[in-house]
From TrEMBL:
Its cofactor is FMN; Mg(2+). This is Coenzyme A biosynthesis bifunctional protein CoaBC. It catalyses: (R)-4'-phosphopantothenate + L-cysteine + CTP = N-[(R)-4-phosphopantothenoyl]-L-cysteine + CMP + diphosphate + H(+); N-[(R)-4-phosphopantothenoyl]-L-cysteine + H(+) = (R)-4'-phosphopantetheine + CO2. Residues 11-225 are annotated as: Phosphopantothenate--cysteine ligase. In the C-terminal section; belongs to the PPC synthetase family. Pathway: Cofactor biosynthesis; coenzyme A biosynthesis; CoA from (R)-pantothenate: step 2/5; Cofactor biosynthesis; coenzyme A biosynthesis; CoA from (R)-pantothenate: step 3/5. Signal peptide: none annotated.
Length: 225
């Protein structure tokens, strides 16, 4: 990696799942490990960037030289991202929960004999990637989102790039037979304004370095994304 290639740049990275509380002891979550986002943050720091990593609950040590803000919910993740602005680039690798529980109970919900189980009403969470991509004075020069797809990876990822308003989409094929989800390797198609770049199958550390290198190239040229 080109040490110093991102010196003077501030990069925001989101990683991990979010936890959406039901009551003080229960929550909704997903299986994201945070591994890919942490690897990207580590590689960006190796390139000399100042990295703010906004992380949901994961079981990973903070990468060397990276400032980690730990959050639990999507609402907290959005607030932490807003607080980290301005930045030159934002990489949204987090698996943000799509919904939160409308009325979280301040007390542990009790199961009472004879009474029916509770019904949870869910409300949509803010889309952090779409918010960071929206035009405005704090809009980072480069905003990168992720797409997990099971078929037509390129077509769906290109549609996601347009829908979210981000510059690049890092797409991967999460069909179970690929072993990618929850695994240590990843096979990426990078969607940019110019089209699709297929990367070889790499471990998640190497994907992080590849992406950091691509970001360093972007900032060293005058090309827009
Ligand atoms: O909409 P979908 O979840 O498929 O999009 C995935 C991309 O959007 C990822 O980059 C993810 O980090 C980001 N995202 C987000 N906030 C959400 C949902 C998704 O930042 N509430």
């Amino acid at each position: 990696l080109p040490a110093g290639a991102l010196a003077g740049r501030h990069v925001l990275v989101t990683a991990g799942p979010t936890h959406e509380p039901i009551d003080p002891v229960r929550y909704l979550a997903n299986r994201s490990s945070g591994r890919q986002g942490y690897a990207i943050a580590a590689a960006l720091a190796e390139c000399g960037a100042r990295v703010t990593l906004v992380s949901g609950p994961v079981d990973l040590p903070p990468p060397a030289g990276v400032a980690v803000t730990r959050v639990e919910t999507a609402a907290q993740m959005l607030a932490a991202c807003d607080a980290a602005l301005p930045c030159d680039a934002a990489i949204c690798a987090a698996a943000v929960a799509d919904w939160h529980v409308a009325q979280r109970s301040e007390r542990k919900m009790k199961k009472a004999a004879g009474s029916p189980p509770p019904v949870l009403t869910l409300l949509p969470n803010p889309d952090i990637l779409a918010r960071l991509s929206a035009p405005g004075p704090d809009r980072p020069a480069l905003v990168v989102g992720f797409a997990a797809e099971t078929h037509d990876v390129e077509r769906h990822a290109a549609a996601k790039r347009a829908a979210k308003g981000c510059d690049w989409v890092v797409a991967n094929d999460v069909r179970p037979e690929t072993g990618i989800m929850g695994g240590t390797e990843n096979e990426i198609v990078l969607i940019t304004r110019d089209g699709a770049e297929r990367w070889p199958r790499l471990d998640k550390q190497a994907v992080g370095r590849h992406l950091a290198l691509r970001i360093a190239q972007y900032f060293s040229s005058d090309r827009s994304p």
